[in-house]
Structures are given as structure tokens and as C-alpha cells.
């Protein structure tokens, strides 16, 4: 089996298949990635990935090849796992899918099942088919199937090995049975449908997750205004199995490489086909407004932001990843810099990538190597990612090193009682701000 593209989806997929007993070759256009992978070094941080990579380089069930054509020739099933970023108009940029398809077409040496795993708009599989027919000149038989992936960054390996469902879009019995056999060892329910429907399910799933997050964020603002607790509202809502408790965490909004771009692409394709998707446009707008909402909260807590020293905890778009693509932190930091604040940034994994966006500057923006170091002398601590280590801080020690005991939690992840017991003023999303305590001298 071959995997084209060794990114956040491709590499966990390749190693996941190796783990359940298949022999996999992977490839990527980025040669440095192929070299690193073959040396046992994953090109990004993902829990458990390095161990699995080393295990299957040693077991011989996985290796990366430099030659994309050779990967195609060696495989009878090929998974296309290349990137599908969004273009300026919101549509999906399918150029990587197209070039992978052309290499497949030029290297068809036997029957192949070509599986679209990258998230792409409805009708992409049809285009893959057409393009292989065009460039492959009909020399060999092939079939295109669609098998969207639902793994999340940060829990990718677990999600691949324990999926809620395996979704297969295919035409022939042969393709369906090959894919069913491939995933058989997982023992998970399979949902088998046609190509367009499989593509639609993937986009509709990510868009629904985004909608759920924006919904709770909208409710969160009302809770704040009316004096209710969004955390308790989410718990109460989630107890209804028709709603479910997941993705009801209010905060500074969704980011990452998937939800934002898939929502855009879904809206774009709907509008192109003449279907009104204003509902999802509003989901996007609500998400964009989270940044101002959060900065407003910081401002409310501190009054003037100019020259305030702020510890920023968490830069990754979510915990357990070093990924900062579309992370809310990028816009929050941008806004706080505009307001003239002095920033001391800390993230357990994402600092290196964040530095590319905001190269180090002395005084105004400092990268710190620990949460406690970033808190030193701070007028407030801002939490932008819910890394577990923030919850486990020694708050007595933190209290001793900050200038002011103020925390603004953009992810509602800390324990209010612990912070308040140490004398912190604790501001959360979807809760009325604490009234300023007047300390009598
Ligand atoms: C998402 C989907 O959850 C996966 O099922 C899908 O396979 C993947 O996209 C993809 O298409 O490749 P991922 O982007 O890794 O996975 O991250 P999520 O766990 O969905 O989180 C996305 C964003 O939503 C994060 O910024 C997170 O902080 C935010 N979020 C999540 C909330 O603000 N509130 C919540 O309740 C949940």
C-alpha cells in the first residue's frame, strides 16, 4: 500500500496501517521530510508518532521513498493524503491533489485503487478519475474511492486505531471489499456509500463541529451579559444525548488547518451550486469575533493595555500539537502588540513555529522556556491553549512571581476555586467578570 503525502493525516495513516499489519510505503514531495522520516524523526509533534515510526521502520512494515512514481508503481492501493489549503476566495486549492493524480496516472503499471483521503469538496473524486483517464491514456485499469479521515491532531494515532466509523465511498464491489479488508483488523463499524456522499459527509462533519463551537460561543456571550455560567449551560445541554457533550467548550474559537478551511470550502462549493449557506457564514463571523471579545476581556481586567506586561500561555491551536496554523493565538498576539502590551510568550511545543510569524524582539515580545518564567513580573496571565500543565501549576508559586494576580482564561480550563484561594482575580469566557476587590491598606 502507498501513501502520498506524509503530513498530519498521511503519516499517522501510514503508521496506523503498519500497526494493524499492512506493509506501507510513503512518500512526499518534500525530500527533507522523507529523509527525516526514514531517520525516525517525525516532521511535526504528535503524541505517540515517533515511537510508532521507529517501531515500524524497524519492523520493516513502513518506509518512506523519495521517488513518488516508484511509490505508485510499488502499490496496489494508494492513499492521497496531500494538503488541500484554501485559496483567497475560500475555495479549496486542489493543486496538490492534481499533481499527485498526474504522477499516479503516469506510473500506472497494474490495476490500482486510488483512495482520496485528503479532505476535498464534493466531486473531487470524479475529477481525480477524469484526470487519471486523461494523463494515463487508458493504459491500465484503476478505480477511485473516497475514504475521509476523522482523526484529530493531538490524538491522531488513537483516533486512527479507534475510529467511531470507517467511511467508504466507492462504486465497485471490488473497491468496497478491498477497503473493508484493509480496515478489518480495527473491528469498527463501516459506513459504505457513493463517492459524492462520502465527500459530503466529511465536509458536513467538520462544518457541524465548527457550528457547535460557534453556537456555544454565542451563548457564552449571552451568559456573560446576563449573569449565567456557560460551563454549567454546556454541561446541562450536553446531558441531552440528542445534543451530546462534545465540542461545547466556549472560548476564543476554533483554529487549526481543518475546521476553518473546510468550512470555507463547504460554503464555497454550496454557493457555487446555488445553495444558500448563510448559516455557516455566520458560524465563521462568530468565530472571527472571538479575538476582539477576548482582547476586550483583557482590557476590562486591566483597563489600559499599553506597557502592561502580559504572560501568554499557549500558542498552539489546541493542546498536544505544535501546530499554529489558523491558531487564535496569532491574532490575539497581533492585537495585543498593536495595543502596546509587552508580551512574554510560552508554549510547551509551538514556540519554534510561532517565532516564524513573530521573530523575536527584545523587550516587547519575549519567548520564555516555562510558564513560570513567562509569569515573572506579569500584570496578567492570559491562557490561549488548554495545555494540561497549566491546570497543574503551583499557583502559590505563580502568585509569588507575578506583579498582579490576574488571570484571563480564554479556554475556561483552570480551576476557579484553586486560583481564587491563592488570591487571583480569575476572568473566564462566558462568566461575568469578577468585581475588582478593593484592598484596604
Ligand atoms: C478536526 C476534526 O475534529 C477531526 O474529526 C477531523 O478529522 C480533522 O479536523 C480533519 O479534518 O483533519 P482538529 O483540527 O485536529 O480535528 O481539531 P479539533 O479537535 O476539531 O479542534 C479544532 C479547534 O476547535 C481547536 O482550535 C479547538 O481548540 C477548538 N474547540 C474544540 C473549541 O473551541 N471548543 C470545543 O469544544 C472543541
List the SSEs and their pairings.
Elements: E1 2-4, H1 10-19, E2 24-27, H2 31-38, H3 49-59, E3 62-65, H4 68-74, E4 77-80, H5 95-106, E5 112-116, H6 124-136, E6 142-146, H7 156-161, E7 166-169, H8 173-183, E8 190-193, H9 195-226, H10 230-238, H11 259-272, H12 278-302, E9 309-313, H13 328-338, E10 342-346, H14 351-357, E11 365-367, H15 371-375, E12 380-383, H16 388-391, H17 395-401, E13 406-409, H18 416-421, E14 425-428
Parallel strand pairs: 1-2, 1-4, 2-3, 4-5, 5-6, 7-8, 9-10, 9-12, 10-11, 12-13, 13-14
The structure holds uridine-5'-diphosphate-glucuronic acid.
Uridine-5'-diphosphate-glucuronic acid is lined by residues 9, 119, 149-153, 206, 209, 213, 247-249, 251, 253-256, 258-259, 317-318.
Please state the average pLDDT score: 95
Q: Strand arrangement, largest sheet?
A: 3-2-1-4-5-6
Shape: globular
Bound molecules: uridine-5'-diphosphate-glucuronic acid
Radius of gyration: 24 Å
Largest sheet: 6 strands, parallel
Classification by helices and strands: alpha/beta
Structural features, described:
With about 450 residues, this protein is an alpha/beta fold. It is about 45% helix and about 15% strand. It contains 18 helices and 14 strands. The strands form 3 sheets. It has a 6-stranded parallel β-sheet, with helices on both faces. Uridine-5'-diphosphate-glucuronic acid binds near residues 119, 149, 151, 251 and 317.
Amino acid at each position: 500500500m502507498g501513501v502520498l503525502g506524509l503530513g498530519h493525516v498521511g503519516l499517522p495513516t501510514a503508521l496506523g496501517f503498519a500497526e494493524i499489519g499492512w506493509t506501507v510505503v510513503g512518500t512526499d514531495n518534500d525530500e527533507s521530510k522523507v529523509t527525516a522520516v526514514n531517520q525516525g524523526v517525525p516532521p511535526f509533534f504528535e503524541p505517540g508518532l515517533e515511537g510508532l515510526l521507529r517501531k515500524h521502520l524497524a519492523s520493516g512494515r513502513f518506509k518512506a521513498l523519495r521517488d513518488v512514481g516508484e511509490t505508485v508503481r510499488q502499490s496496489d492501493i494508494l492513499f492521497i493524503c496531500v494538503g488541500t489549503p484554501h485559496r483567497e476566495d475560500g475555495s479549496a486549492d486542489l493543486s496538490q491533489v492534481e499533481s499527485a493524480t498526474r504522477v499516479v496516472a503516469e506510473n500506472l503499471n497494474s490495476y490500482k485503487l486510488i483512495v482520496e483521503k485528503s479532505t476535498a469538496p464534493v466531486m473531487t473524486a470524479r475529477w481525480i478519475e477524469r484526470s487519471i483517464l486523461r494523463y494515463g491514456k487508458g493504459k491500465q485499469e484503476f478505480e477511485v474511492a473516497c475514504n475521509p479521515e476523522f482523526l484529530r491532531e493531538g490524538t491522531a494515532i488513537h483516533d486512527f486505531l479507534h475510529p467511531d466509523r470507517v467511511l467508504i465511498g466507492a462504486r465497485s464491489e471490488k473497491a468496497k471489499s478491498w477497503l473493508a479488508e484493509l480496515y478489518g483488523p480495527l473491528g469498527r463499524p463501516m459506513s459504505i456509500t457513493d463517492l459524492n456522499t462520502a465527500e459530503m459527509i466529511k465536509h458536513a462533519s467538520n462544518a457541524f463541529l465548527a457550528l457547535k463551537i460557534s453556537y456555544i460561543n454565542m451563548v457564552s456571550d449571552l451568559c456573560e451579559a446576563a449573569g449565567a455560567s456557560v460551563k454549567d449551560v454546556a454541561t446541562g445541554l450536553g446531558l441531552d444525548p440528542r445534543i451530546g457533550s462534545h465540542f461545547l467548550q466556549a472560548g476564543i474559537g476554533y483554529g487549526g488547518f481543518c475546521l476553518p478551511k473546510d468550512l470555507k470550502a463547504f460554503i464555497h462549493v454550496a454557493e457555487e451550486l446555488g445553495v444558500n449557506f448563510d448559516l455557516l457564514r455566520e458560524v465563521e463571523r462568530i468565530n472571527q469575533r472571538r479575538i476582539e471579545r477576548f482582547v476586550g476581556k483583557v482590557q476590562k481586567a486591566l483597563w489600559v493595555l499599553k506597557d502592561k506586561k502580559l504572560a501568554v500561555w499557549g500558542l498552539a491551536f489546541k493542546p498536544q500539537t505544535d501546530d499554529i496554523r489558523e491558531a487564535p493565538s496569532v491574532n490575539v498576539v497581533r492585537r495585543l502588540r498593536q495595543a502596546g502590551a509587552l508580551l512574554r510568550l510560552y508554549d510547551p511545543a509551538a514556540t519554534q513555529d510561532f517565532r516564524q510569524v513573530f521573530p523575536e524582539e527584545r523587550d516587547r515580545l519575549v519567548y520564555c522556556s516555562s510558564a513560570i518564567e513567562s509569569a515573572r513580573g506579569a500584570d496578567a496571565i492570559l491562557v490561549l491553549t488548554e495545555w494540561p500543565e497549566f491546570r497543574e501549576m503551583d499557583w502559590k508559586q505563580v502568585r509569588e512571581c507575578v506583579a498582579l494576580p490576574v488571570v484571563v482564561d480564554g479556554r475556561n480550563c483552570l480551576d476557579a476555586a484553586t486560583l481564587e484561594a491563592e488570591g487571583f482575580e480569575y476572568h473566564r469566557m462566558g462568566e461575568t467578570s469578577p468585581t475588582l476587590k478593593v484592598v484596604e491598606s
